[in-house]
Amino acid sequence: MKYALFWGCLIPAREPSYEVSVEKVMPAFGVELIKMEETNCCAPFGIQSLDYTSWLALAARNLCIGEEMGLDIMTLCNDCYESLLMVNTILKAHPEIRNQVNEILAEVGKEYKGKVEVKHMIDVLYDDIGLKKVKDAVKKPFTGLKVATQPGCHLTKPKRIHFGAREFDALDELVKVTGAETISYERREMCCGGPLRGINDELARDVARIKLVNMKNAGAECIVTVCPFCFVEFDLGQLEIRRHFKEEYNLPVLHFAELLRMAMGMKLDDWEIKSHRTPLEPILKGRLKEG
Amino acid sequence: MPDGFAAQAKNLIETGRVVTPTASMVSKRVEIGLPKEHSTATEDVQKILKKTGLSKIIASK
Question: What residues in B contact A198, CB-CB < 8 Å?
Fold first, then answer.
């Protein structure tokens, strides 16, 4: 299995532990990731709302790179996934829009042909590798760990394009094969609040708090996500909530790739553990050494 | 236009990215053996956004 890997902006800029974990985990399943060079921002929802045509053209330019490589694209970020998947779907279905976008892309020597597919890492693990192979790779299961999963909005919406509920279940099933338990909590499908940052920070914080309260009340011991924006909102956000509301939730936040990496018997380095603003130590017992 | 979106667009026009690594993150990346940053086609982004007109809208903000 070989994919064109689209890193996006946020992960390399803020979350290198996610980057390292993907590079360690995916090759173990025979997945070859070829980095896409000279990419641009995926043009997330903020850009989409400012100018629809710019959003289409910027995302299409990235799709062209995957086409030139002759490989389907794998993303790690939910916003990148949504942008690239939606634009790919729109351009394949509407030749008139494709022509308009290709006129713009001609300025930079590109042409979108509609010969590429876009997958999230979750799709690759769940569909292409399969739960059995993932389970077989688990050497140090997180037996009994109660996990609140946060797939993130843009992995599952809009449902006319995404698999919707299936992708909520896909993350839960992948977490379960690491030996952990997934808990059911109120408003699981609700946004983390992150997209409201820079627009209404107070509301963003309130939304994150509602989710943290519900997770904690349901007995969660940690949060697992596949979205770098949800990660920031819950990891760094818990510090802000502690300052503002004088409340402590102490819920470590992990990217699924980090959870799987540790379940496969690989440790996180010290710098990675320290890069989490909400301490990971409560769930790291016996996992500070390899093997 | 929300300030947050305008800031994203401004960064996009200047760097080709909405989020870029801080100087300390670039140092950390090098220290842990990752590339400083992943290559970005900033000029292409500028050409595209000039063509669509978004650059002009953001410049007026």
Answer: 2-5, 7-8
